[in-house]
Amino acid sequence: MPGSAKTMTVATVGGLVLVTAYTVALGSNGWLWFTWAVLGLLTVGVVVARG
Known about the structure:
Elements: H1 3-26, H2 30-50
């Protein structure tokens, strides 16, 4: 996996941890989950394109 794809994967997993922690602490926020889903789709696209 090239460096940019690895960086995006780490950012996506870190974002999931942050959004989950926010949801547990303060309640769900649809925009955060939507943003994380878009980031996840972009990451999948980069991994597939670089693979």
